[in-house]
Design a protein that fits this description.
Layout (H helix, E strand, L loop, with lengths): L1 H27 L3 H9 L4 H4 L1 H10 L2 H25 L14 H28 L9 H30 L3 H18 L17 H14 L1 H31 L4 H28 L2 H10 L1 H10 L3 H29 L5 H12 L2 H16 L5 H4 L2 H24 L2
Helix pairs in contact: 1-2, 1-7, 1-8, 2-6, 2-16, 4-6, 4-15, 5-6, 5-8, 6-15, 7-11, 7-14, 9-15, 10-15, 10-16, 10-18, 11-14, 12-14, 12-18, 13-14, 13-18
């Protein structure tokens, strides 16, 4: 229960930050590319720090690593809130470029630090779960944690974040700092042994450890497919999610509160996904369920592009997050079950290097697509182009992986 509570608090903070980070960027610039770059700073560390974090997770006490990372993130969010406070009131955002470059640069650096700590924290937490619950309960536990994470990250967090932004711009960053501090204290109170199983002496050099993780993933056909599918799915999902900010503001005339509520409705879908995954597995094979959940995002992106108003967008986000949580539960549970404990951190890091490393690329590409499309279409149309690209991309990769997923989960 304490681990679940810590996960809930940490993800509540992450959910508040989802709204606060993107909305703050839109108050500093109206350029889609620069808006995308700021939240991308939180994801870039997955490219550069994922592999070292896997080695850390297999060398140290995973509980202690989580506590240290949450403390680092709490401090960074506190500093971010203070930096914004010192720069109030903000000037009107620039249509091109950045209005307040010093604040933007400070937030960018803090985002990179937060991202590095999040990489190590999430890798350790996912590697630690099989030490808390037995193998036969992994789907149920991952579904429960997925629901808790979604409530905080996508439902309660965004709603609270939108309210806090409207109340006082620095306040969401300060509340996130407090939530992460409490999460660290809860994790520190857990009892038990959370070190990886003993490894052979010849595998203790970091190069040998790194190679061992890569070899395991490369040699396992199903893990290779899951890495590719998750990576490209995340790429297109992030492309659509960041495009949603300006699409709502300019095309649908929605404010921060509406944006937060739409993300909250999406999170309800994620909670439903976490609850129904076990019953769905009784009615359908794992492979069939994985195939359709992988494909489901494509029509949702199209629905958002053609949405006449925020209610339609909210409905699309509900179904988008529902299918995403079901997919993640199936993928993560499979990986936790087949990977030995002694190398789980390193395998997770190799997996997430690509799966999460594609996220910042999706964010930046989304902004670049809007800027490029603006040369051919009216801005209103250009803001929807990332949704069409994302829908087409998801459909292509769902077709590519259809047969391997059907066979691999048997």
């Amino acid at each position: 229960m304490r681990f679940a509570a810590a996960v809930g608090l940490a993800n509540l903070g992450d959910g508040i930050a989802v709204v606060a980070w993107a909305w703050t960027a839109s108050l500093l610039t109206r350029d889609p590319l620069w808006i995308a770059v700021l939240p991308a700073a939180l994801r870039v560390p997955w490219v550069f720090f994922a592999l070292p974090s896997g080695i850390l997770a297999d060398r140290v006490d995973r509980r202690r690593l989580i506590v240290i990372c949450d403390m680092i993130r709490a401090g960074a969010y506190g500093i971010a809130g203070g930096a914004i406070l010192l720069n109030l009131p903000l000037a009107d955002p620039a249509l091109e470029g950045i209005e307040n470059t010093s604040l933007y640069a400070a937030l960018l650096c803090l985002g990179l630090l937060i991202g590095c700590a999040e990489v190590a924290r999430d890798n350790a937490a996912q590697s630690m779960l099989p030490a808390i619950v037995p193998s036969e309960h992994l789907e149920r536990s991952n579904g429960l944690l997925g629901g808790i994470e979604t409530v905080g990250n996508e439902m309660a967090g965004p709603a609270v974040g939108a309210f806090l932004i409207a109340l006082f711009l620095p306040s969401p960053f300060l509340v996130v700092a407090l939530a992460l501090l409490l999460a660290a204290l809860l994790t520190a109170s857990l009892s038990g042994n959370f070190r990886a199983q003993a490894r052979s002496e010849e595998a203790r050099h970091w190069r040998s450890e790194l190679v061992e993780g890569f070899r395991f993933v490369i040699a396992h056909p199903m893990l290779r497919i899951l890495v590719l599918v998750t990576g490209f799915w995340n790429f297109f999902a992030e492309m659509a999610v960041i495009a949603l900010v300006l699409h709502l503001q300019e095309n649908l005339s929605a404010g921060a509160t509406t944006y937060g509520l739409i993300l909250a409705v999406g999170a309800v879908g994620g909670v439903v996904g976490g609850v129904v995954v076990a019953p769905l597995l009784k009615a359908f094979s794992t492979g069939l369920l994985a195939q359709w959940m992988n494909l489901a995002a494509a029509p949702m992106f199209l629905l958002i592009a053609f949405a006449p108003g925020p209610i339609t967008v909210a409905a699309a986000m509900f179904l988008f997050y529902l299918s995403g949580i079901v997919w993640n539960t199936l993928s993560i549970s499979y990986r936790q079950r087949v990977v030995p404990d002694g190398i789980r951190g390193r395998v997770n890091s190799v997996y997430r290097l690509f799966a999460w490393g594609m996220m910042p690329l999706g964010l930046v590409v989304s902004g670049a697509i809007v800027n490029l499309a603006s040369g051919f279409f009216e801005r209103e149309t250009a803001l929807t182009v990332p949704f069409f690209v994302a829908a087409f991309g998801v459909a292509i990769f769902a077709a590519f992986s259809w047969r391997p997923l059907g066979r691999g989960f048997q």
